[in-house]
Amino acid sequence: MLNKFGIALAALMLIGTAPALAQNKDAEPPAPNGTVSDLKLTDKEYAMGPADAKVVFVEYASLTCPHCAQFHTSVLPDIKKEFVDTGKIRYVYRDFPLDRLALGAAMVARCAGRDSFFGFIDTFYAAQGQWSRASNPISALGNLAKLGGMSKSKFEACLKDVEIQNGILKQRLKASNEFKVQTTPTVFVNGERYGGGMTLDQMRTLLNRKLAE
């Protein structure tokens, strides 16, 4: 199962966390750099957590972005455990590919199906340094997809799927034009826009404040 494979890869990375203390200035999140009143969420989102959660966390990310990989391996796992799995927030993942390789990886994750989507996403981020910098990154990406149970023929067909490709590009264009997303990762917490470079402690502080409002 790819989910288990992704977990195994992530476990190889050193994840350092420190307790979030109210008096610790390092845990103070930055001010939002904008607000969007309507992110146009639908029931077709790639999301986790209750649909009626008080706090909605939307992330725009690119699968070849090192900062996104850092966020997904060092921050998001604890956020999922503490806030998503406990039903406190809803997490929504949206693609904002920065290059054709990220676009291809995003297409493959979608072709894997909804049940396997986040397993592919987690694995692609955990192994980003290997496949994205390989001499033949598409082949390396295909090997990862194969480990997740995707056949070579399905992988190759997926990369030619114009409908999936256009869906991702339209999502990116809307994010850029309507929500002013310019860099990755960019996150929205109840419509407030933040750069995604926050530490785990900063993210904890921000989410706990939103839950307390």
Assign an overall shape.
Answer: globular
Return the CATH topology: Glutaredoxin
The SSE string, one letter per element, is: HEEHHEHHHHHHEEH
The count of domains is: 1
Largest sheet: 5 strands, mixed
Cα-based radius of gyration, to the nearest Å = 17 Å
Number of DSSP-assigned strands: 5
Structural class by sheet pairing and helices: alpha+beta
Question: Mean of residue pLDDT?
Answer: 90
CATH superfamily: Glutaredoxin
CATH class call: Alpha Beta
Uncertain spans, ≥5 residues at pLDDT below 50?
1-23
Strand content: 5-15%
Euclidean distance between termini CA atoms? 40 Å
Overall CATH architecture: 3-Layer(aba) Sandwich
Largest sheet, order of strands side by side?
1-3-2-4-5
Short overview:
The protein is built from ten helices and five strands. It is an alpha+beta fold and 213 residues long.
Would you write up a description of this structure?
By secondary structure, this protein is of the alpha+beta class. It has one domain (about 30-210): Glutaredoxin. It has ten helices and five strands, in the order αββααβααααααββα. It has helices spanning about 1-10, 65-75, 75-85, 100-110, 115-125, 130, 135-145, 150-160, 160-180, 200-210, and strands at about 45-50, 55-60, 90-95, 185-190, 190-195. A five-stranded mixed β-sheet has the order 1-3-2-4-5, sandwiched between helices. A hairpin with a 2-residue loop joins strand 4 (about 185-190) and strand 5. Helix 3 (about 75-85) runs parallel beside helix 10 (about 200-210). It is globular, with a radius of gyration of 17 Å. The chain starts with a helix and ends with a helix. The model is unreliable at about 1-25 (pLDDT under 50).
